Every structure is written in structure tokens, then in C-alpha cells.
Amino acid sequence: MKNYKIRFVPLGGVVGVTKNMYLYELYQNESLKDILIIDCGIGFPQEKELGVDFVIPDISYLEDKKDKIRALILTHGHEDHTSALPFHYHALGQPPVFASRLTAIFSENKLKEHGIALKINQVNYQKTYRFGDFTVSFIKMTHSIPDTLHLFIKTPVGNFYHGPDFKLDLTPPYGQPPEFEKITAAGKEGVLCLLSDCLGAEREGLTLSEKIVGKTFEDEMRKTKGQFIMTTFSSNISRIRQCVEAAIKFNRKVVFLGRSMKENTKLAMENGYLPIPYEFLIKEDEVKRIPPGKLCLIVAGSQGQYDSALSKLANGQNPNIKIGQGDKIIFSSDPIPGNESDVYSLIEDLMEKGAEVIYSEIGEQLHSSGHGNQEDLKFLIRFTNPRFFIPIGGTIRHQKQYQKIVADLGFTKNSVFLLKEGETVWFLNQKAFLGEKVETKNIYVDAYGVGDVGNVVLRDRKALATEGMVIAVLIFDSQGQLITSPKLISRGFVFEKEEKGLYKKATNLIEKLTKPRGQPQNLNEVKRTIINQLEDLFYKEKGRRPLIVVEVITI
Ligand SMILES: [Zn+2]
User: How far apart are the CA of 107 and the centre of ligand 1, in A?
Assistant: First the structure.
């Protein structure tokens, strides 16, 4: 149709794997008419060790376009697709939110924790929905969490198949297999662009069914004399359920550890996704009464997160549960790219306690990826037979590999768009081309708040962690004269006792810089000069740049 065009805008989820959030914008006669938002997830930054918990997508681009947002759709209940919603829901102008049942249950709970009472619309797979000039139908899909969906989005410009996180699981342990007939029907109708998960693009063959994991749990449990411990994402309900079923079979009591794990499993139990006979479920403080060989612990913290329940076990900080010889720990999830070193150091800590640790490098089939391998990806391409491709949910490595797969199937390489965050694609007249980039930045969230952790704060934390800190306390009288000589306090920099000479130099420098010069001093300027000169001095003498704080007290 004339005068219509679509712009696809990834606000996250490309290159970085996590923090998924995508916009479809429909323009008519050059003016923006409707926006459809898919997913709103958190991401995991490299700066974790500096106290940043996660990052959320930057939605400032949408600031003046809120009134065009017709719907926000969540594709499944994983945190990297849903958990930024509580932070953005109001800022997005409270759009109607749609999701499958389990996704809605998890997300409503998350929203409630943030004081937002929202009823999410649970989608009906038989229905088609109109959101402005978008017509959307939902397709049941399989992944490592039940109730995952794909979308078929019809627009006046062409049809889009939006296919995030998936694998084609013909024998899902719970729920239904993918709705292949709907996918092929979409292909028959014509797909202008396929947006596909690409995280598994480097792995050959078909992904194993999620069911294989259940068998592995049983095999491993049979061989385990001590405590059986399984860790995965707390939202991987299918995996957790299979572990619980194995535990019941081997008469092991089940304990959930970690706040998110307890929370999610409670919701899943209440809503029929995780049936556990009451006599099998015990609390953390009951563990002591039960022989290790009769225990199955399901623990949060598989990504090596600092302060997680698993880290506490590894560091001996759990007062009720100790790890030791005979215990077995299974990591039933791969590290998210970027988290590898944290995960491996956690694995080493657990091994030092004498436990046997099984993770993906050494244990085959102990977890089947939730993301389709090459053949899964090829099936989706063949079924939908699109004109253009946008790989999503993977790093540049996965995107490139996906492009190769596409080329292997006989499509041209330049039908694949390898996008970075904020890079956009226009669609019109059956053509597609790169559009202008939308500027985005990382918004850091830590325990204390959203977005107040800027680059300056991160830099300070880095300095604190690696270079230490020096505080200078200056006491002035009302005339701007130093009353006593400046006091220097340092932490993690150098020992004051051993570096008396350096401290003397520093105090002399401060005294010189604070000498009254006949006119009133601008205290902020004095502070800045002191910091600059102290930085130079410490760097010259010690080769280090501690964080310097100057505290001025006027009495
Ligand atoms: Zn997922």
C-alpha cells in the first residue's frame, strides 16, 4: 500500500543478547501513526562487581511518542524480556500489556513489587488482535519456559514474523509443541521479514528436547550420595519442574533457595505450573534434620551473581546448609556471554568445598539449550520463507553465523541486517534499508535506584576498587583561614604509617593551596584545585590514582 512504511527499532537485545526491547513503528504519509513494542527486559552489565545490578533499555527516544504506543507485548517470562517493565511502565504512558498466562503471572508479580497493580491481558491464541494498523496473531512456541510465544504481525507494508527465544521442541515436557501449522500458514501468506533468535547459530544440528534434561537429572541423582543441588534461572520453570519430579522419584525433599527462586516457584505452584506434593517441600531451616542423600536443593545464582543463594553456599555463608564431599551441583544453564568469569570462579569455589560440579563444558545433555541450534533456525527460515532477516537476541558472533546459515539456504547475504542497538531498518514497497540510528545509553540500576548510577559513579567505584581512596578534611574559620592543618584519611591506597613523607607533602600542598589571597575564596574552586594537584602528586609518587574526596567544614 502506498504512503505507508515501517521502521524497526531495537532498543536492546541485538549484540548484547539480553535487555530485549523492540519497536515496530508504522508511518503514514511520513508521520508516525502506531507503535508496537515487543518485550521490555533487563540486561546484565560487565560492571556487576562495582555494585550495578543490571541495566534497562533507554526509552528516551519514546519520550514524545507515547501517545502512539498501541500495545506492549511480552513474548515469554524470562527476565531479559520482561523485567524492565516495572521501571518503564509509567514512562511509556501505561500502554495495554499483552502476554501469555505464565508470563502475565510472573510480570504482574514483578509489577506489584514496584507498587504497580496492573492486569496484563492474557492472549487468546485463536484470536487476532488489532493494535492501530497492526494486526497481530500469536503462535505457541517452545523454549525453556512454558507459555512462550511468537508473533505474526501484519502491517500495510508487509508481514513480519517476530521469533525471539525459541527451540523447536517436539516433545516438550509440559505444554504443547510449537504450532507448526500456524508458522507455515504465515509463510504461505508471505513474510517480508523474519526476526529470529540467533543465539544457537554456532551449534550444529537440532537442539535436544527439554525432556532430555529430566532424564539427565534422574541419572545424576541416582549416582549422588550427598545433597543434589541444581542451579538454573529462577524463571526456567520447565527445568525446575523436571528436577522436582526426579527428586520425588528418588524420594529427596525439595528446598528452594534464593529470593527469586522462592518467589517464582511459589507463583508457579499456585498456578498449576509446578505441582509438588506438600510432604516433599521443606524449608531451608529444616535441612539439618534430613540426611544429605535425601535432599534436592534448587538454587538461584547460576550466573555467578555476587550475593546470590549459590554464592552464599559456595562461600559457606548459609547458616543451615553446608557443601561438602559427596554433594553434586549441576549448572543447568550456560553463562550468558559476559558472565563467564563469574560463573567459573563460582564453580571453582564449589569444587574447593569438595563437591562434584557438573557444567556444560564437561557434562553433555545436562542442559539442553533453550535456544534453537542451526537446524531449528533453518526450519523457521524454511517455514516462513521471508524476504529479509534480522537476527535478534545474539552477539555479533551469533548474528554473523546466522547470516551464514541464511546464505547456505540460498538467500542472499545482504537480505540479512546485522544490527547494533539503536540501528534501525526501514521497510517500504517490499524493500528494506538501514535507517538513521537512534541514540541510546545504558541505564544502570543498582540496589539504591534507577539511573542515578552514571558514568561518573562507575568511574568512582572503579577507582575505589582498584586504587583506593583518600579523604582530605579541611576546617576553615569564617574568614576562610585553615584553623588546623588538614587531616588526611586513606583507605586501600597506602599505609599512612609507612608513607609519612607522602602525607606530609600532601598536607603541605593543601596548606599552600588554601592560603588566603586577599580576596574571598571560591571554595568549590579550591576543592577542585586540591583534588587535581593531589591526583598529580599521588600519581607521580605512587603511580596510582585513588578516589580523592575533599570535605570542607566551616566553623
Ligand atoms: Zn528466553
Answer: 14
Cα 144 to ligand 1 centroid, rounded to whole Å: 7
Instruction: Pinpoint the alpha helices (H) of 63-143.
Output: 79-82, 85-88, 101-113
Of the candidates 197, 327, 334, 446, the residue annotated as catalytic is: 197
CA–CA gap between residue 68 and residue 54 (Å, rounded): 28
The set of cell numbers assigned to 152 is: 505474526
**Integer Cα distance of 472 and 549 in angstroms:** 6
Cell numbers describing residue 143: 523454549
The 10s digit of each residue's pLDDT in 113-133 is 889 999 999 999 999 999 999
Bridge partners of 134, per DSSP, are 131
pLDDT digits (tens, 9 = 90+) for 288-334: 999 999 999 999 988 887 778 999 999 999 999 999 999 999 998 87
Task: State in Å: Cα 509 to ligand 1 middle.
Answer: 57
3-state secondary structure at position 11: strand
Can you give the C-alpha Rg of the chain in angstroms? 28
Residue 118 C-beta-side C-alpha neighbours within 13 Å: 27
The per-residue DSSP string of 467-521 comes to H-EEEEEEEE-TTS-BSS--EEEEESS--TTTTHHHHHHHHHHHHHHTS--SS--
Looking from the CA of 119 toward its CB, the CA atoms found within 13 Å total 1
The set of cell numbers assigned to 118 is 496492573
Q: How far is CA 363 from the centre of its chain?
A: 25
- Provide the percentage of residues in the chain whose pLDDT is more than 90: 62
Distance 145 CA to ligand 1 centre (A): 7
371 is catalytic: yes
Helix (H, G, I), strand (E, B) or coil at 146: coil
For ligand 1, the distance from its centroid to the CA atom of residue 157, given in whole angstroms, is 29
CA 472–ligand 1 middle distance (angstroms): 49
307 is an active site residue: no
